[in-house]
Structure formats: structure tokens, C-alpha cells
Amino acid sequence: GKKPLHQRVVDELKHYYKGFHLLWIDTKVAARMVWRLLHGQVLTRRERRRLLRTCADLFRLVPFLVFVIVPFMEFLLPVFLKLFPEMLPSTFETESKKEEKQRKMLNAKLELAKFLRETIAEMAKRNKADTG
């Protein structure tokens, strides 16, 4: 069944609230990491990736805020998300979008592994023919 309009609006508002809240937490953590960097400490690989993701999210927030601030422009958000799928900050992604992105990434890795396996098999055949 389809949810009533007021319930869908409330769900969307909760989604945006949670997204901004997570972005705020990520920004605070990133600020601490930058502080540590400025004082000569070295970041781990995980911390470095988190810092880069948070900085990218902050840059993506600028065009996203236009849709939130300008009245009735949020109706155009789905159109722009179809045209520019990476426009939305990572804290605003839904679970289904995250799963879809992971599925695509896994398929790409499997295709790459298949290609590499076939390439190695072909190289082995060539080497066997050359030495045989």
C-alpha cells in the first residue's frame, strides 16, 4: 500500500534531518583530523579516506542546498539526480541506493577478475607454446 501524503512528507523530513546530522558529525570528525594533520600527526588510510569523503560531501552540499532553500525546487531534485547521480552528499543516500552501488561495484570487480584470469591463461598458453 501507498503511504498517506503527510506520512511521506514526515519521512522525507526525517531523512533530510538524519542526513544533515550525519554530515555535521562527519564534519566535526574531519575538523579534528585536519587539526591532527596540522600538528604533524599522520592519518591512517581509513582516516584519510573519511576525510576525503567528507570534503567531497561538503563541496556537493552547495548545489544541494539550492534545492532545499529555493521554494518548490525540491520537485526538480529527482530530475537532477538522474542527470548527476553523484550530486547528493553520501550522508543523504538511502539504503537501496547504497546496495545498488555496491552491487554495481561488485559486478565491475568480477568482470575485471574474469578478464585478468583469461589474460593470464592466454599468457600461460603462449609461454607453454614458446618453450614447448
From TrEMBL:
<feature type="transmembrane region" description="Helical">
    <location>
        <begin position="58"/>
        <end position="81"/>
    </location>
</feature>
<protein>
    <submittedName>
        <fullName>LETM1 protein</fullName>
    </submittedName>
</protein>
<dbReference type="GO" id="GO:0030003">
    <property type="term" value="P:intracellular monoatomic cation homeostasis"/>
</dbReference>
<dbReference type="InterPro" id="IPR033122">
    <property type="entry name" value="LETM1-like_RBD"/>
</dbReference>
<dbReference type="GO" id="GO:0005743">
    <property type="term" value="C:mitochondrial inner membrane"/>
</dbReference>
<dbReference type="Pfam" id="PF07766">
    <property type="entry name" value="LETM1_RBD"/>
</dbReference>
<dbReference type="InterPro" id="IPR044202">
    <property type="entry name" value="LETM1/MDM38-like"/>
</dbReference>
<keyword id="KW-0812">Transmembrane</keyword>
<dbReference type="GO" id="GO:0043022">
    <property type="term" value="F:ribosome binding"/>
</dbReference>
<keyword id="KW-1133">Transmembrane helix</keyword>
<keyword id="KW-0472">Membrane</keyword>
<feature type="domain" description="Letm1 RBD">
    <location>
        <begin position="43"/>
        <end position="128"/>
    </location>
</feature>
<keyword id="KW-0496">Mitochondrion</keyword>
<keyword id="KW-0999">Mitochondrion inner membrane</keyword>
